[in-house]
Task: structure prediction
Amino acid sequence: MKTDFSLFVELLIHSGFPEILTYGLKKEQNLEVGHWVWVSLGRRAKPQLALIINIHDKKPPFKVKGVEAHPANFKLCPVSLENLLWTAKYYCTPPGIVLQSTLAKEFPRYLEHLYNPPKRKLRTFSPDCDNPQAPPPLNLEQQAAVEKISPLLAGDGFRGVLLHGVTGSGKTRVYVELVRQHLEQQGKVLILVPEIALTPQTRDNFQRYLGEPVYLYHSNLSAPEKRATWLALLKDEARIVLGTRSAIFAPNLNPSLIIIDEEHDGSYKQQDPAPRYHCRELAFHHAYKHGALVVLGSATPSLESYQLAKQGQLHLVELKKRALNTPLPEIQVVDLMAQAKQDKNLTLSPILRETLTEHLLQGNQAIILHNRRGFATSRQCLNCGEILQCEQCQVPVVWHKQHHGLLCHYCNRIYKLENPCSCGCEEFEMGGAAIEQVEEEIRQWIPQAKVLRMDRDTVARIGASEKLLNAFRQGEYNVLLGTQMVAKGHDFPQVQLVGVISADLGAALPDFRSSERLFQLLTQVAGRAGRAQQGGEVILQTRNPQNPVLQYALQHDYPAFANYELPLRQELQYPPFKKLLAIEIAGKNLDRVEKLCSYWQQVLAKQKDIEALGPAEAFIAVIKGMHRRHFLLKGDNTQILRHISENLQKTTPEAMQKGLNIRFDIDPMGFV
Result:
C-alpha cells in the first residue's frame, strides 16, 4: 500500500550504522528532533532504534519507509544532540559511529524502563549521601582561589579556568566548594577524572560534604550502578555526574560547570576506535556553544592549557603551597650508571633498598613506580644474539611469569619460553627488568614488605582496582608497586616514600610530547609522598641525571619546565602553536600501503596551507601483521586539516583504499 508522507526525517541508527538515513513522517505523529523512534532497516526483521536529528518537507528522489514512535516518548535534549553532531564533524567520524560510542549497549532496555518498568525485582543502587559532614575550612590560598572562580559560575558564554596547584595543594577542596555554590544556583555539574580507580575516592569526597547523589559514569560499573546512572539521566534527576572520559557524553545532563581534574592526563584522549575525541576540546565546545564554566585542574598542566592561560584565554588561578603546609617532598637522584658497576642484576639501588626498609620499619607506606609490565622485557639468544620478536608485530615479546610464557603486548599472543631460537640454540638470557621482577626482588630483600602489585594484569577484572586501592589505604599492604596508574591523583596519608626504578623510561620515544610526559609522570608520582603532616621523600633512579627535564622535576618547577619546552615547540611548529592531523595507513599488503602513500604524498604536496611530513614507517612498523605508515599534517586550524582529510577520502579511488585500514586523528597525542 502506497503511503504519502508530508514530512521527512533524517535519523541515526542506535546500533552503529554510520550514515544519516532518511525516512517518512506523518504530521499527526507529532514527533520532533531528538525523539527516538523504531524503523525498519533493509531486510532486517527486527526493528532498529533510531534518533531523529532533522525534520524537513523536501521529498527525496527515492522511496522511503515510515517510522514508529517509541512508547517512552523520550527526547534527547538539543544540547546533547548538538554536541554529538559537532563531535562527528570535528573528529571526521560518521555521526552514526559517534552515536553508538556515546550510548550504553543497554540503552534500549533503559528506554523501556521509562514506560514499562520490569515486573521482576531488580537489584537497585542508590548513592549513599545521607548525613553530610561539614568540610574542613578552606585555607587562605584555597579561599582566594574560590573567590576568584566563584563569580564565573554564573554568566553566559565560555568561561574557563586553569587551576594550577602543586600536588597536595587541596584542589579537590576547591572543587567541592565550587560545586556546593553551583548547586545552590540550581546548576548541574560534570566532574571528570582520568582513571576509573579514582572515582570511588572522588565520589566519597563530594558526597560526604554535599549530601547530594553523585552518579558514576564509566565502563566498569556494576549493572545496578549503571542502571541507576542512566535512569537518573534519562529522567533528568542527576545533578552531579562523575566519570572518566566517556562521561563527557552523559545524555541530557547539560552541565553548566565542568571540572576536569588532572587535565594533563593522556587518558582524556580517545585513541581507538573512532571518534578519537579529547574531553578538553568537547568541554570547551560545550562551554562556547551552550554557556558553561570549565575548570581545568592539575599540578602539571598540559602545555596547550598553560599557553591558553598565558594568553589570557583561560583565567590562571594558582595554589603554590600544600594544603597542610607540609613541604614538597625532597627528591634524591641515584645514578644507575654508577650502580651498574656494583650489581647490574638488581633493580633497586642500595640506597632505595635501605630507605624503603627504614620506612617500613617505622610503619610508613611506600609507592614504587616501574612502568614496565611483565618480568623481563626481552629474551636474547646466547648463541646468535637474536632477540625474540612477535611473528605478527615487530616488537620483542615480554616474559610474564604469571602467563608462563612470552607475551606480545600488542596482539596478546603467547610464546613458549623454551621454544628454541631460529638458530637452534636453546640457551637464552632474559633482559630488561619489568615490574614482576621488581616485586620478586623486594620480597626477597625486605622481609617486612607486604607488596601489592598494580598493573594492567592485576586490575583486569571489574572492581579490581578499587579493591586493591582500598586494601592499601587500609594498611593491609605497605608497598604499592605499580605502573603509571599509581601516579594519578591518589591520596594515601601514610605514604612517606616514593621510589622510581627508572626515571628515563619513555624519554627517548620519537614523540614531541615525550619530555612533557616524563616531567608530568615524575612530578605526579613524587607528589604522592608526604601529603600528611610528616612530609616525605622521593628517590629517582636514572641513567641520565643531567637530563634538564629531570632537573626541573627535582625542583618541582613547572613554570621553568614550560619556559624551557614551549620555545622548542614553537621552533618546530608543534602544539600549542600548530594544530595536527595524524594519518595512519595500515594493511597486510605492503605494496598496496605504499601505493596509497605515494598517491597521497603527491596530493598533499600541492596543498599550500599546511606542512605535510611523511609518509614514514611507524615507530612500530608492523602490528598484527599490518604494515603501518604515517603522515603528519600541521596547520593553523583544524578546519583546514578536516577539509583535507575529507577530500583525501572522497577524491581517492575506492579501489586504492580497499583492504586498508585508514585512521585519521585530529589533535593526536602520540605517534607510536
Summary: The two ends are 57 Å apart (CA to CA). The mean pLDDT is 93. Residues 590-605 form the longest helix (16 residues). Residues 491 and 528 are 7 Å apart (CA to CA).
